[in-house]
Write a structure and sequence with these properties.
Length: 316
């Protein structure tokens, strides 16, 4: 199949933010949050995430704490972990990945990650409960980043939280540069500690911090030789070829092929389910569960079953 940059906003000279709902609407589908069978738990978690958006930025204390780079880095990293982060990394804000229309003056990005319930949910996708798990983690990230940004502002330094509902920069490229993972063929970050079963949030700040370095754990080579996500993707949306998008050669996912499954099957995530890195991540504790699940799944049957429930796209 051909590889293409899917939306012009993602491949032009300027990086333009397009929400998941708008992305799906472009291809004639409604978002997961527009389902007729949305549960009360999904509604509550979505409301909690939305309620934190006004808290992502705020006033900065007039008195600035005297913090050297080493002390500031240790403090921010420690607080992020105390607030629930499973991983923390720091990098400079890259203007290339700031969305068009935002004047983001903060110099540093603190990137945090929280693991999802791999055995209980990611191995069981797609289902409603898995979408609840995504929202649970995003709510936790919103809460964590809002609190961390508030504490940095209380120390006298501008800081802004960026969540899935209100981000001013592309988070995954910053997570990569902060050492949280390498981009996998399925478009999600992968590392050896948490596999690809995690989500990220960002706090940008003027507080000077020590930068981490990008990981080089051989993930790109691993993905080049692995075909699990390309084989099992029910929409045939994942290619074995890389493409140049906005001057960067990387793996991409054909969003137009992915969109109907994402919309109809609770954000799908079959690609995360079958990624074999997860069998070695988390200290290898889920290896047997992964092997059992892969023995149950037949890619042809899976694709036919999920495709049968895809509605026809609405006129664009």
């Amino acid at each position: 199949m051909s590889v293409r940059p899917v939306l012009p906003e993602w491949s032009g000279d300027k990086l333009v933010y397009v929400s998941p709902r708008e992305t799906l609407n472009r291809f004639g589908y409604t978002s997961v949050s527009q389902r007729d069978d949305v549960t009360s738990e999904e509604i509550e978690l979505s409301s909690q995430i939305a309620a934190k958006v006004p808290l992502q930025d705020g006033e900065v204390a007039a008195r600035r704490r005297n913090l050297g780079v080493a002390d500031a880095t240790a403090w921010v990293t420690s607080r992020a972990r105390q607030l629930g982060a499973d991983m923390v990394g720091i990098t400079k804000v890259d203007p290339f990945y700031v969305y068009d229309g935002f004047d983001l003056s903060n110099d540093f990005a603190v990137v945090v990650a929280i693991a999802m319930d791999y055995e209980g949910e990611i191995l069981q996708v797609p289902r409603k409960e898995s979408h609840v798990e995504y929202l649970r983690v995003y709510e936790a990230l919103s809460r964590l980043t809002v609190q961390l940004a508030a504490e940095i502002r209380a120390a006298g330094f501008p800081a802004r939280a960026h969540s899935v509902r209100d981000e001013q920069l592309a988070m995954l490229p910053h997570a990569h540069r902060a050492g949280l993972g390498e981009l996998g063929k399925h478009g999600s970050l992968i590392n050896r500690e948490l596999g690809c079963s995690f989500r990220v949030g960002v706090v940008t700040t003027e507080l000077t911090l020590a930068e981490d370095q990008p990981l080089d754990e051989g993930i790109e080579d691993f993905c080049s030789g692995c075909r699990m996500c390309t084989t099992y993707c029910p929409g045939d949306a994942i290619s074995g070829e890389r493409a140049v998008v906005r001057d960067t050669e990387r793996w991409i996912v054909d969003t137009e092929r992915c969109a109907p499954f994402f919309a109809a099957h609770y954000a799908c995530a079959v690609c995360l389910q079958v990624c074999p890195i997860n069998a070695k991540a988390f200290g290898g504790q889920f290896r047997d569960a992964y092997v059992r699940k892969m023995k149950e799944l037949d890619p042809t049957e899976l694709g036919e079953r999920l495709s049968a429930d895809i509605p026809a796209p609405s006129p664009r």
